[in-house]
Design goal:
By secondary structure, the chain is an alpha+beta fold. The protein is built from twelve helices and eleven strands. α2 crosses α3, α3 crosses α6 and α8 crosses α9. About 5% of the residues have low confidence.
Amino acid sequence: MATITAAMVKDLRESTGAGMMDCKAALTENDGNMEAAQDWLRKKGLSKAAKKSGRVAAEGLIGALTKGTKGVVVEVNSETDFVARNGQFQGLVKMIAQVAFDAGADVEKIKAAKVGDVTIEAAINDAIATIGENMTLRRAAALEVKQGVVSHYVHGAVIDGAGKMGVIVALESPGKADELAALGRQIAMHIAAANPLALDPSGLDPAVVKREKDVLADKYRQQGKPENVIEKIVESGLKTYYKEVCLLEQAFIHDTGKSVAQAVKEVEGKVGGAVKIAGFVRYALGEGIEKQESDFAAEVAAASGKK
């Protein structure tokens, strides 16, 4: 039987991030074979990850990455906000964004993609085993234009390119790349603040528009307005609604006297060509996830064996 030295344990710990006693056990179980020990730890990590997979992961980080005409945004969730400040988790989010940039926005393809000899899915599970919280790659989106730029903005950034909210926006234009990038960042900041639902009215979900029309119509029916008058009032009300939720019609946060469409049109001379907003994606951390309420004091007391 091989002698397990402190140096072997140290090397295994550095290569896997696992605990010292786990590394020693892995080497002992596998007669000092480093690769077999790494596999043993990974399998053990997967087992640990499975035990944590039922926990709600609604914290974490949004990662955004743009280069030239391409950009991606990803959401990687954890159970607590503490993990967002963990260097290993932050590195994982940046790595996932880079892989998504190359592999595309399909979550399963991202998880199956490899960095070196390890898949992203294995890297996530290794992080779960090491940090001790459930983590998930929840979603990803990508934008690309043939000519122009894709810009991004990260709000509440804890590191470069990762924070509590991420926006990417695509601008199609033959204009100057540096001017386009500056404009794109301004528009991305606007999107973060104003939360548009679509680029223009044609992009809105018909069910959302119908609901808005029904609410407006019912409101004026209750006031006793005749149907022909209600129809005109509803159409006027919808125009106001579009200004609130459609990006091109919203008041530009950097100059509220103009709509976003007007602001873009006005800078075309400086940019050196026509500019079209081709699309945008806005991810806010944990949106749509039903978070579990917990009594933190009770959890600490339980963990220490107190009632």
